[in-house]
Amino acid sequence: MLQDSITDLNVFVIDLTISDSAIRPKVTAILDSEEGLGIDQCAKVSRRLAHRIDEAYGEEASYTIEVTSPGADQPLTDPRQYARHTGRTLKLTLTDGTEKTGTMEAVEAEGVQLAEEVKVKTKKSILPAVLVPFADIKEARVVISFK
């Protein structure tokens, strides 16, 4: 239902939850896009979602809607989120438990090209970029830098 009403806005659903409150349930939609998500897009989706809920359950239905984008500290959970972070530092936790931190140089259909930073004693070296498949990534976070 939600994805159908937002396709023309070039956004996609990261998470959709509905609280279990019988009095006034809260619908929370976390959305993103390959270019990032602005407040205008969130407002449009909120209006469309409210309209769809009203159509399905009647205008007298009591609910709250929150439409938002993932915060900067939230992990990347959809391969479409990676493209706009090309050139930034990512911290990856892999499915085997290992961690890699480095610059994401490119995004490919099957994964990301990561130039890993490794520390040997007090020196930092950057390895040539290698493909890290999405299937091997348990969690990916953008490293926020205030340089």
From TrEMBL:
UniProt main location, coarse: cytoplasm
Family annotation (SUPFAM superfamilies): YhbC-like, N-terminal domain (SSF75420)
Segments forming a coiled coil: none
Ribosome maturation factor RimP N-terminal domain location: 2-73
Pfam family, one: RimP_N
Alphabetical keyword list: Cytoplasm, Ribosome biogenesis
The Ribosome maturation factor RimP C-terminal domain, residue ranges: 76-146
Highest taxon in the source lineage: Bacteria
InterPro entries registered for this protein in UniProt: Ribosome_maturation_RimP (IPR003728), RimP_C (IPR028998), RimP_N (IPR028989), RimP_N_sf (IPR035956)
Entry's family note: Belongs to the RimP family.
General function of this protein: Required for maturation of 30S ribosomal subunits.
Protein name: Ribosome maturation factor RimP
Species the sequence originates in: Hymenobacter fastidiosus
